[in-house]
TrEMBL record:
This is Nitrate reductase. GO terms for biological process: cellular respiration; nitrate assimilation. GO terms for cellular component: membrane; oxidoreductase complex. Belongs to the prokaryotic molybdopterin-containing oxidoreductase family. NasA/NapA/NarB subfamily. The lineage of its organism: Bacteria, Pseudomonadati, Pseudomonadota, Alphaproteobacteria, Rhodobacterales. Its cofactor is Mo-bis(molybdopterin guanine dinucleotide); [4Fe-4S] cluster. It comes from Litorivita pollutaquae.
Amino acid sequence: TSQNRAEITCTTCPYCGVGCGVLAGQDGTIKGDPDHPANFGRLCSKGSALGETIDLEGRLLHPMVHGKQADWDSTLDLIAGQFSRAIRDHGPDSVAFYVSGQLLTEDYYVANKLMKGYMGSANIDTNSRLCMASSVAGHKRAFGTDTVPGTYEDLDEADLVVLVGSNLAWCHPVLYQRLVAAKQARPDMRVVNIDPRRTATCDIADLHLPIAPDGDAALFNALLAEISRRGAVDKDYISAHVNGFDAAIEAAQACDPALSGLNAEQINAFCDMWIGTPKVVTVYSQGVNQSICGTDKVNAIINCHLATGRIGRAGMGPFSVTGQPNAMGGREVGGLANMLGWHLDIENADHRAAVQEAWDSPTICTHAGLKAVDLFEACASGKIKALWIISTNPAVSLPDAGNVAEAIANVPFTVVTDIMARTDTGDLVDVLLPATGWGEKSGTVTNSERRISRQRPFLEAPGAARPDWKILCDVAARMGWADAFDYQSAADVFREYAALSNLGTRFGRDFDISGLGDLTEAEYDALAPVQWPVRKGETPGGRFFAEGGFYHADGRAKMLAITAPQCVSPEAENTFVLNSGRVRDHWHTMTRTGKSARLSQHLAEPFAEIHPEDAFALGLRDAGLVKLSSRYGTATLRALISSKVARGEIFVPMHWTAQFAPSGRINTLMAPAVDPVSGQPATKGGAVKAEAF
Ligand code: SF4
């Protein structure tokens, strides 16, 4: 009823990139928002348990300096002084921010403006680098800018949905539920699941392709070659809108399909379905992105959609599903070290000058900053003198996590902003700052389909906790830039960011929400979920590229010649390909979901999922302990013996921290190998030795 409606707050789930609308009561009751177009009332286990994670146990409630409680003023003075001194003595590239897709867009925007326009460095990277940097790079190579062409409605309208490297059932459960509902409504709709593992997502798959780790580019090259051989190319679309067709086909034809790890029958079955079904959406996620050839994999997928003109029309297109609620917002504000806000390019002098003018800033970064893995290597080598980590836990989540922890400890001055008092990263630093968390802070997030939704507060800020944008502004003011950071509210930040986004259109870019640039406080508060672009006087949202209109200088898309898909193939005895991923009921490093007993019941401890024949060869029993080791570290886990993983491969969940399972920190095993184009770490593939413990 309207009375009940008034007692609850419409907000957005803080976990995955589906971006579900949530109705939250002050007493912690949580329901799905039936009016939100991302979820229409559905929630998954994590979203439903949000009320169990908002107590104050373990919260960081006051600034802490070297382990002692401190007041805000002196702590902010200390931070401003240390960052100013580092810039004065060692230059702007001696400071760095490492932020998070958990930040709201307003927080992200202020951090980006402060680092790139005022401190004068692009050393601001984000844990989104671990999530979808390869998709961003693939989009930019193909389309000229980082555009997600489609919408969630395409999943309802497609006749074939191909999931690549995506355990949608556990990682984006509400989208999975949407697929289940679509398949029930239209039983002829088919689903293909491409994954080395037989995951829960296989429950709705008509075809499971147990691909070799990193075999995706070989498979999509095989598909592209077959599209050409069978005459399924949309020649009119190619001629009008696409460059690079011949080279891409030639490379695809030269590629050995066996590199996919699939046999000819499996590849043919896939090609029959894909080529024979015009309305096809190819959804890709971390199994594609988190790889040393992640960007090539993205472009191999996009090539097939461009070659057939199956893009930007109802039920057709490539679709990157992001991990975090605001991974897209971070991309839009330029939260990655190699981007400017509003999808503008650091490398472009005109873009840099326009951003500097818009910000009326004293400087602007002149080159790309350090991407996540490089950033922490620079910490280890002594190049970074002051580091501020915001709302993320890199001592657990980055590859080679043991050395990352040492690198953080090596930086002369370190700050962490977090909601929790104890995290693996927070334990290493000089200063801890208490941030407001979900339910306490106000702002916006952008989900995987470009939909901007409000996160609204329904709880008081606990202790001395403050919003991230406010903390950043207070430091900026102390560094001498009070006027440029004189925001009075999150709405104030949003207005500036949205109004300036017409720079996107001015430079022929996709991103523009200037139609939201003059919202009043009340209008911002009431903002309904809206899909960008939101240009003045135009209907917002929609799809891109049905009629071309790409963002390369000539307006055409580019197909890439994908020539050398690389696969991990450890050959030494007892050496396995390590594949990491999420479990259904935990989120990232468990700082929130670890609070819920209900969520911890699903899988209570980390495990190593291993094929029965491999387990037998190693002398492992189910639930016995297995020790995994690499040149980077070791982890000891309980064996889960299952034929869902292929021989020679081991799957491990990524969530557990020193706090929850000291011997189960998986990313201590991972090599700091990255995709050469995107800089995204290859946390889906690494070689480990396994032995019974
Ligand atoms: Fe939250 Fe994602 Fe679950 Fe939706 S699907 S409730 S956004 S975790």
